[in-house]
Amino acid sequence: MFSFEQLRGFVTVAEELHFGRAAERLNMTQPPLSRQIQKLERSIGVTLLDRDNRRVELTAAGRAFLVEATRLLALADAAPDLARRIAEGTTGIVRVGFTAASTFGVLTDVLDRISVALPQIELDLYEMVTREQVEALLAHEIDLALARPPFDPDLFGSRLIRREELVVAVPAGHPLAALDRPVEVGDLAGVPLVMHSPTKARYFYDLVVGLLPVEHHNVAHTVSQVATMIWLVAAGRGVAFVPRSAARLGIDGVVHLPLRTREAKPVELHLLWPRDSTNPALPHALAALEELDPDG
Q: Is CB count within 10 Å lower at the N or C end of the chain?
């Protein structure tokens, strides 16, 4: 096996095509440099240099090997600095889980802030519902989540990053769209609903039934994704309760109406991370997100 010292000697000779000048650059004498090259050639089993008393030239094998030797030396030179930056948390990977609904304006803000503050951090994205994000955080498959409450505070650190209104998405031309006031519970009597799944969209399901007396015999469809709900609304299959940010989808044929609720902004989105994370980049990512305004 060859050494980096032998690689460096070979690259220097290949650049100078002169053993004397190469030895001078390496602060050594010519005989030990010649022995380094000979050991390297024996190690890899090919002749890298044609040399005599007047000239030194690279063989075809030597030209090919020079490319890889230069690359290996560059990696070796960069490795200590890279290791230090990874240990400091300024270089590395942060794996971010997010709910589909969090892409409506929040996710891009999170990514932009981390990228500006930490340009050497690579961000890997994973779309998951909150339950899946919690499981992935516990398994250390992701480092940071954009998820809905509640969370176990003993296991997770969390920070509120967005709160917003719950609105009613209705088909264009629906009678509710003619109201000159927020929609109230009584206005929804007998209206077909596109409802959140109680298992796959548990946060929104609990939020809606906690705020409104949903009549389950009016539920026409149950789905897990907000975007799917709005497409069903556009098709005239019912009305749906969605976060205000969902209007950014811009789906034709859908109007988003204010809804009177006990809380003005009941929909919450949190940053979530495992308290026992060992990723040194995570604290830096969280610091970059400290100025996020929950009210947008």
A: N
pLDDT digits (tens, 9 = 90+) for 7-60: 788 888 888 888 888 888 888 888 888 888 888 888 888 888 888 777 888 888
**Does the predicted model carry a pTM greater than 0.90?**
no
Amino acid identity for residue 276 in this structure: D
Asked whether 245 and 102 are in contact (CB, 8 A), the reply is no
pLDDT tens digits for range 264-278: 899 999 999 999 988
DSSP per-residue string spanning 85-128:
HHHHTSSEEEEEEE-GGGGTTHHHHHHHHHHHH-TTEEEEEEE-
Report the interhelical angle of 60-88 vs 4-16 (nearest 10°): 130
Q: Domains of the chain, with CATH numbers? A: 4-88 (1.10.10.10), 92-162+268-288 (3.40.190.10), 166-263 (3.40.190.10)
